[in-house]
Amino acid sequence: MTPVTGTILVARPLWSVLRRIGDLLSRRGYAVEEAGSWSALLAEPGRRADLAGVLLGEYGNFAEEEEILRRFRDDGGPGIPVVLIGGRNAVRRTRRFREAGADMVFPADRPEEEILDRTMPLVAYAAMYRNAVLAGRELSDLAMRDGLTGLPDRRRFSLDLERSAETARRIGRPLSCIVTDIDDFRRVNEAYGPVMGDSVIRQFGGVLSRVKRSYDTVARLGGDEFVWLLLGVGGDEALRAAGRAHRLVSASVFNGAREPVRVTATFGVASISPGGEWNPQFLVENADRALYWGKESGKNVVRFYPPAKEAVDA
Predict the structure, then answer these.
(1) What CA–CA distance (Å, rounded) separates 215 from 75?
(2) Could you read off the pLDDT of 45-55 as tens digits, one per residue?
(3) CATH architecture of 142-313
(4) Would the N or C end of the chain have less CB density within 10 A of its end CB?
(5) pLDDT tens for residues 231-242?
(6) Domain spans of the chain?
(7) 7-134 belongs to which homologous superfamily?
(8) Which entry of 109, 224, 236, 288 is annotated as an active-site residue?
(9) At 3, is the pLDDT very low, low, confident or very high (cuts 50, 70, 90)?
(10) pTM beyond 0.90, yes or no
């Protein structure tokens, strides 16, 4: 019987749990392919349309592994979930692996059923993403791009919010939103002029695009304000994602015509979960409230609204 749910690539299955997960996926109708090297991620880009997900066995060469993940994402691996399984040292490097392109990192001593239960909602969402692309829906979205940054604009974000909220509701997963803008951006325009201001906005959007997952939505709402949707991510993980972006912005040097420019940014975070009030518009409004709260409390911070989560300061 021909599988109808796609192919799972299992690369370098050094850990026995990877093969056990592969067996479970085969029983669910997936075609499971094994590869002896992570380099299989970079071979035959045309095959990626068939990939439903990637399982990677960590093998200890962290620099090489991170480079392969980055190349896979940069060379056109959007919407393909990547799950990494390894030892304690790999788990300690979870943040680095996620920044390079992995979606989830698990220790190899976790039961295969637990790993699969946490992974499958991501695979289901990725399948919906690919189906939308194959149906040609992206063609009508090409006009809804911001001319300065190339990111989705406010109209496209509204459509993605509606679509992501419905997907999250159907698969029983949370949905989080991050709203951010550059602190004291007017001073950049006053000091360097509007051309440099536009360049900083463009580069700021690029920073957000690098830190997000490949299938997250980062859109420009207008001016220096951006929004980031994270499907399947609860409040705690969204706070950590905003914290990563916050640190990356603070560490970045934006190229200017006359001299390098440094900026800071404030991030507002909100989340909705199954079983609670499910209103995507309230989600964005709460993230915006968190952003306002961050501005009022000194800027250059990460805030969550309602304020029940621990805030992250610079």
Answers:
(1) 14
(2) 555 667 888 99
(3) 2-Layer Sandwich (3.30)
(4) N
(5) 888 999 999 999
(6) 7-134, 142-313
(7) Response regulator (3.40.50.2300)
(8) 224
(9) very low
(10) no
